[in-house]
UniProtKB/TrEMBL annotation:
<dbReference type="InterPro" id="IPR016181">
    <property type="entry name" value="Acyl_CoA_acyltransferase"/>
</dbReference>
<keyword id="KW-0808">Transferase</keyword>
<protein>
    <submittedName>
        <fullName>Acetyltransferase (GNAT) family protein</fullName>
    </submittedName>
</protein>
<dbReference type="Pfam" id="PF00583">
    <property type="entry name" value="Acetyltransf_1"/>
</dbReference>
<feature type="domain" description="N-acetyltransferase">
    <location>
        <begin position="107"/>
        <end position="237"/>
    </location>
</feature>
<dbReference type="InterPro" id="IPR000182">
    <property type="entry name" value="GNAT_dom"/>
</dbReference>
<dbReference type="GO" id="GO:0016747">
    <property type="term" value="F:acyltransferase activity, transferring groups other than amino-acyl groups"/>
</dbReference>
Amino acid sequence: MRRLRTTADVQDASDDPLVRWAAQALSSGGAAWEHNGAVAVHAPVLTRRRRLVLAGPAEGVASLLAAHGRGVELRPLMERPLALDVMSVMPTPWVEDKPFGWMDRSGTLDLPTEACWLGAPDGVEALLHEANPDSWAWPGEKGVCRWAGVHVGGELVATAAEAWSSADVGFMMGVAVHPSHTGQGLGQRVCQFVTSSLLTLYGTCALFVENYNAPAIALYRKLGFAYRDVTTLLPAA
């Protein structure tokens, strides 16, 4: 089992955007390892969770999970089909917690003119309370970098944030459209703006999405994102 000490080490060991995104934790108390082609990144605080993000062949992932996966409130995170394979071979039982979606894309995307980065997040918090109260990204929260928006008549009616980006994976969170302005393509415009900007900066853009949110998944697919089922695990009682 080999310790990966830098973000570059993780990038050399894996081309999976999920673990490359998690590699940002190495600059804030995290750690990473490689074993038999698999990679694990321990992120003490990443999108509000203490995570162990894993990718690679199931045998190697199972070994990394056995070595580093125990801990109070630690959430092992990996692609769901991989998790099912890993659970079937683990000597210590694990159970699935909550599946959801990871979406990413690379390349380039046209930058729409209707959206812009906000100089200050004025109106964002009120919009989130109205349209997306369960958002994981909020103004002023650690790791949330900046907000984009679309205005209609001087009012902020759509927003999305760059939050928890890594060295080579930009991350989009906090998408919201005011209920009185849905169905007008504003969510797509603000998401396209943020995606285009992050692709230019990082080369890859990614996001989390609830696996039951078909309209959101369809919107992101329209912007070129590919969907993967991911899940977190818990030690069996």
